[in-house]
Amino acid sequence: MVDSTILPLTLDGATVRKGGQQIVGPLALTMGGVGCSIVIGPNGAGKTTLLRLMHGLERASSGSVKWALKQSEVFTRQSFVFQTPVVMRRSVIENIAYPLHVRGIDRKIAIGEAEKWIDKVGLMKSTHKDANVLSGGEKQKLAIARALITKPDVLFLDEPTTNLDGSSTQDIEKLIRRARDAGTRIVMATHDFGQARRLADEVLFMHHGIVHERAAAEIFFADPGTTEAQVFLRGDLLL
């Protein structure tokens, strides 16, 4: 990590509108410091849109989304991992090295760094395979390695273990913890209460596009402060 950081990230009255409908916001949030923020809520609550808004894949329809540094520095110092992993038509090692290639890093150095990450995520036997032949869990490990090879200040993850088996989920959670412990700020959406309990330092609970509650994980799961969160954690329908 470098001395300066793109954090804090500040959302001030930020909204996202689509098809004439406001689907997220208004939001007033500040994301800074260290740790892992887990975003939970029912389907359609706006979790993915919130992450995309923070990352820059969505533009605010109103209000503002501002980082501590100028925008030209932001995109090279954060990463996003999608629910369905994106892989390019090239080998595993070339996929992982790609972010360094586009930053102008010498090819030999980039490949050397990619080899280290292949070892970290347990894909050594697949180094020179076409990435498209990997299993779902292996593709997600590749995607996380590619996201972390640049040592980002912030890593956004959108339900990265959906449809994966227990073993793959465990491996990916270990990668997320290591990234957090190394100083990368984690902001992650999940539908899995167990996963949220295992990973979260804090929880953001969303419903109808609004963050209804934000609290330290141990406080949220022990005694949620809003009726909506209480209903959701009980497993009851939240309308």
Question: Overview of this structure, please?
Answer:
By secondary structure, this protein is an alpha/beta fold. It has a domain at 9-84 and 153-234: P-loop containing nucleotide triphosphate hydrolases (Rossmann fold). Helices cover 37% and strands 24% of the residues. It has helices at 47-55, 71-74, 92-102, 107-120, 136-148, 166-181, 193-199, 217-222, 227-234, and strands at 9-18, 21-31, 36-40, 62-66, 78-81, 154-158, 185-189, 202-207, 210-216. Helix 3 crosses helix 4 (107-120), helix 3 (92-102) runs parallel beside helix 5 and helix 5 (136-148) packs parallel to helix 6 (166-181). The radius of gyration is 18 Å and the shape is globular. It starts with 8 loop residues before the first strand and ends in a 5-residue tail after the last helix.
Would you spell out the secondary-structure blueprint of this structure?
Layout: E1 9-18, E2 21-31, E3 36-40, H1 47-55, E4 62-66, H2 71-74, E5 78-81, H3 92-102, H4 107-120, H5 136-148, E6 154-158, H6 166-181, E7 185-189, H7 193-199, E8 202-207, E9 210-216, H8 217-222, H9 227-234
Parallel strand pairs: 3-7, 3-8, 5-6, 6-7
Antiparallel strand pairs: 1-2, 1-4, 8-9
Notable traits:
single chain; 239 residues; alpha/beta; Rossmann fold; three-stranded antiparallel sheet; 9 strands
CATH architecture of the domain at 9-84 and 153-234: 3-Layer(aba) Sandwich
Strand order of the largest sheet: 5-6-7-3-8-9
CATH superfamily of the domain at 9-84 and 153-234: P-loop containing nucleotide triphosphate hydrolases
Mean pLDDT: 95
Q: Give the biggest beta sheet.
A: 6 strands, mixed
Sequence of secondary-structure elements: EEEHEHEHHHEHEHEEHH
Poorly predicted spans: none
Helix content: 25-40%
